[in-house]
Amino acid sequence: MDHKAYIADRLHIDGVGRQEIYASLAVPPDLTLGDYALPCFRFAKIFRKSPALIAEELAGQFQTDGVISSVSAVNGYLNFKIDRKGLARDVIGQVLGRKCAYGASDMGAGKTVCIDYSSVNIAKPFHIGHLSTTVLGGALCRIFDFLGYRAVGINHLGDYGTQFGKLICAYKHWGDREEVEKGGIHAVNDLYVRFNSEATEEMEAEAREYFRLIESGDEEATELFAWFKSLTLSYVEKIYDRLHVKFDSYLGESFYIDKIPAVVEALKAKGLLTESQGAQVVALDEFGMPPFIVLRSDGASLYATRDLAAAFYRKKTYDFDKCLYVVAYQQNLHFQQLFKVIELMGEPWAKDLVHVAYGMVSLEDGAMSTRKGKVVWLEDVLSRCVEKAKAILAEKNPDLENRDEVAEKVGVGAVIFGALYNNKIKDIVFSYDKALNFDGETSVYVQYTCARAASVLEKAASAGAKAECTDVEPNAQEFELLKAIASFPDAVKSAAENCEPSIIARFAVDAAQKFNKFYIECKIMQAETDELRSFRLALTEAALIALTNALTLLGIGVPEKM
Prior knowledge:
Layout: H1 3-10, H2 18-24, E1 36-39, H3 44-47, H4 51-61, E2 68-74, E3 77-82, H5 84-98, E4 112-116, H6 131-146, E5 150-154, H7 162-174, H8 177-183, H9 185-198, H10 201-216, H11 219-242, H12 260-269, E6 273-276, E7 279-282, E8 292-295, H13 303-318, E9 322-328, H14 332-344, E10 353-358, E11 361-363, H15 378-396, H16 403-420, E12 428-430, H17 432-435, H18 443-462, H19 476-486, H20 488-497, H21 502-521, H22 530-554
């Protein structure tokens, strides 16, 4: 429960909005006075009374209940104390009752959200630049699904363009089917790189012809392209499995080619198309944007045109309530243009299109730029992180069973968390050492906290001790942990509303920190009474469930032991 929201909803002050009350509520430095405080000084001019008198009057009007146990006025502040026993009963009861569904809701029932993410290019390996879109989109799919929406994951494949004619040309000149099958996507990429460095003018002409043959449905060209596509998908599926990502649609750019004429006709019918230097464009200068090019001077479409056709297809196919595009911020202008064109076409659902922009990822040595030849394959980053995790685990726990399985969860989880912990729009510099820090703001820290909680519960079960929410007044550490756990459902909703999984990642770190403080300062198995031990075991189980649910939404596995 968001206690600030609960107070703001129930506190009525003439002339002061609910949002202003919510924003003004703060945690006082002296928690003996209350858990939240509302300074009344800003209301003095409105009511022409002293802040102290205003606070006293408001305190007299507020009705306490099972959530707020007391309200007091102190030196112009209105202080609220949360009913700690009530909070414990409510939170622990909900968590233990719902378990893996804790934090879920049906707020999205009957609604569909399309999420366009990852969007890999055929015949090119995954590099670290694909990390953010893939894990961000995957997390959003899980979050919206958790909230009752129908989440449709779409991988808008880059499978159209002259580069595929170049690839076929390179294969025909230098390729060997057996060698390419053996080398997979990297062998295909090597052929493409070789073409770009060695191709003659005659080969460039051949490449254009091969692309024309693909477009016209030539049997050999189509078969070769389908082969390259299958090699790509076989390769990326393995990475998607490691990242716990799945898609409902793999329709790429080529799928929309035959749907472009209808969109062009609709633009003409609306009087939106004009000619500019031979190209067909939609003028957007009155909106401060350059023209949206629909068809080039030779009549060919662009990826922008295919995006336009795809938007109409998705609306017709899924009748979405929202369609999210998880694409880097460099494409801000493109999506502003795309959405504006659909709006100008008179489509009311243009307002439901959302560009979820994110920043760039690089390694500490700056490795990322393909033009500088410093591209880093994502599979290598994942594998290196797993190997480092395995070495750390061997040092910390030499007797750990299933070390390879645990290392996979820890290493891959560290990469995912590293991309999701900060606000999505920020550029990220990935560090192996920081990502695998057991004491930092990392998934490893949260995973280790989960393993610690699981160990406590395992020992308790062996000793026959029960986890039950008994009638205990929570102390300071227990109360802070309870509040953290209680905030999880709101964190999930906020993550969906803002398309910001970092809210859940930060919840996980905060809750883990609160649990570890509780673990260190409060005896659990050696509690003074059986009643207190049962309560603390119930609190431990509730923390484990909330943390596990948070990591699962992010796509991160939770080892039972570390």
